[in-house]
Amino acid sequence: MAPRPADFAPAPPGGLQGQGITALLGPTNTGKTHQAVERMLQHRSGMIGLPLRLLAREVYDRITRTQGEAAVALVTGEEKRVPERPRYWVCTIESMPTDLEVDFVAIDEVQLAEHRQRGHTFTDRMLHLRGSHETWLLGADTMRGMVADLVPTARVEQHPRFSSLAYTGVHSLASLPPRTAVVAFSADDVYALAERLRARHGGTAVVLGALSPRARNAQVALYQSGEVKHMVATDAIGMGLNMDVDRVVFASLRKFDGREARDLELSEMAQIAGRAGRYTTNGGFGLLRPQRPMAGRVVSAIEGHRFDPVRRVVWRNSNLNFESVETLIASLRERPRHPALRLVEQADDYDALMRLVRDPELRRSASSPELVALLWDVCRIPDFRKLMLDSHVELLAAIFAQLSGPTQRVDEDWMAKRIARLDDQSGDIQAMMRQIAFIRTWTYVCNHPAWIVDPEHWQQRARDIEDRCSDALHERLTARFVDHSAAGHTASARSRRRPRKRPVADERPRVEGGPFATLAALEDALPQAEGNRRSEDRWIDDAVDAPFDAFSLHANGELHYADAVVATLRRGADMLHPEVLVAPDDVGAGARSRLLRRSQAWVRDAVARLTAPLESLAGDLQPAARGLAYQLLHGLGIVPASAAKTQLGRLTAESRAALRSAGVTFGQHVVVVPELFDASRPEIGVWRAALWSAHAGWPRNAVLPAAGAASLRAAPDVDPGFYFCLGFPVVGGIAVHFAALERAAHQLASLGRGPWRLPERLGAQLGVDDDGMRAIVAALGYAAGPQGWSAPPRTRRRRRARRR
Prior knowledge:
- With 804 residues, the chain is of the alpha/beta class.
- Helix content is 41%, strand content 14%.
- The protein contains 29 helices and 30 strands.
- Strand 27 and strand 28 form a beta hairpin.
């Protein structure tokens, strides 16, 4: 990436701004983020920064569906999923690694650079973060002038909206059509509207920015699957979260922005209204009674996407001086030198720092540049509870005291007590929201490995608690805002389906008068299948978040999780890309979609692990060598020598040497990469069988070779290709391991023209009896005569040709 200047001054063309910078600007529903993701995947490596944790998780899920989880990292303040060698990074803007060298970088929603609190981070990424080959800036067309001013080398592209937006007037709750999202700007207003929609329409989904991804996904699944027809949301839906919304209705046009209650700006209204309509489907926006109709100029601006340009963006110095607390504060207060930049007015981390350094003892303890830098890192722990009062500052002070103390770690007992208090799912909606917010703070802390003893344990502990609280929150929201009696036909339809065995049972306590009493009574009143659905959804949530090793792929193409079939493989474009079908048929559309994404990602990862040794064949090879490498890849590392005859005949000595150095072995009967048949990994053979079976159909009478077997009797009604895929070419009705076959072929060729007797230990080496040995030798072309065995004529001709 480009070097970061000590302070900002616009660089001349070809300078620090880098090369290949594209600004994709336009309204919502122009496909900007989709195009950026597709472009990133065309590069060998890339990183995209997104404004919301929920959106980052959505994009991560989308990419892993095609690339597998081993190729993609997810980095947010509270969640880090970083595989060993990721190619692509999906991050929130604040969590983007600034020292990472990648080919492609995309920064989404750059118009948020004018946001009073977060804007300085968007500005910093826009000015300084670059891909080594290409950089994309995505955002509203209002940033056109600002991009031209601050990033003069950028090529600006304007993208029109795929569909139109039309004003639909003022609506009553009773008249709201299906697929409508009602937008409010406080949790209390959201809950009040959801209660009224439940009474009018039988229920609604609820989406707030403070929801965890798990709870948000569960709520969206209710809406996407059609179990409820409406949604009540905050303006969190305005930042690219993909839902099928036909109409957006504003319950209010004022919001509290953390400092004051103010009217929405036109651009904010358009960002939210733009969620209506998907791709080429037109959308509508309106108001909820008792509001008065929108002014004509407002309607015209939103429908025509015409807004005042951004004049200035928020900035903060990113070249901080950690020599002392005083120099750190001075560098944070440094003013920008460009007229388009204005110093950030309020930032939570700066406010936390100023509160902490009021303590003389703490200020003295930050006695070195390393400790000052540590103090600043602690101040950047987010206040997810939005307290910024003594409670949060006291927590930061305690954490810094421990990290700057003798152990330089957060005390485990101290942390364990505070985290344990959050593992309680007995509260109401507000209590669950508070606990999720607080556990997010601890998740952020646990994602700093240098701060924690056994960070992996504590990261998992925090995730588990957040999952349980998320499930409980989803239950509370559904119990309060969904009237299941209004969806009786759906429940009845489910009750007719044959129930499937599930790996996890619903074991919530049912104490009379306790927190689950109302919910338990509600579920008992429903058909059993409907009562089981939420347990299934929790099971699916567990599966979606489960690690790779929690799944197993069976030879018949079934993918299992916790002894239940979650998906099956079917014929796809080729053997490396099977189609994945979700197995459970009695779950909602949203749950099926998430389970499909996880299953597809798992299969991609399994294929990547299986073919990993072939990655070294992707180098600069001559055409014949590339053709052979392609055959090896699509043959899962083994190709009949006869099928590769043309490529083998055209290989140069240099190409053959390059392939050998990459692990390719050239035999008389097969060309093979032995590393792909590692006997110490028995699952490899099962994965091979599953991929072959998905492509060609599972052979009923097939038996997989035993571990370490040299051969096995081939079933006559099983395609020989099945055994060959496993590394066992069929010779004389016997499937022989390629290594044993090549050793035998070499040994027989060394005996000359003949006649000669078969070597004594040949049968043992091939793992067959005398009859099987003679069948294999005969199938290799050797002839048995009165005096013994002799080489086939073609072998003699080949030997004479080699002598010549």
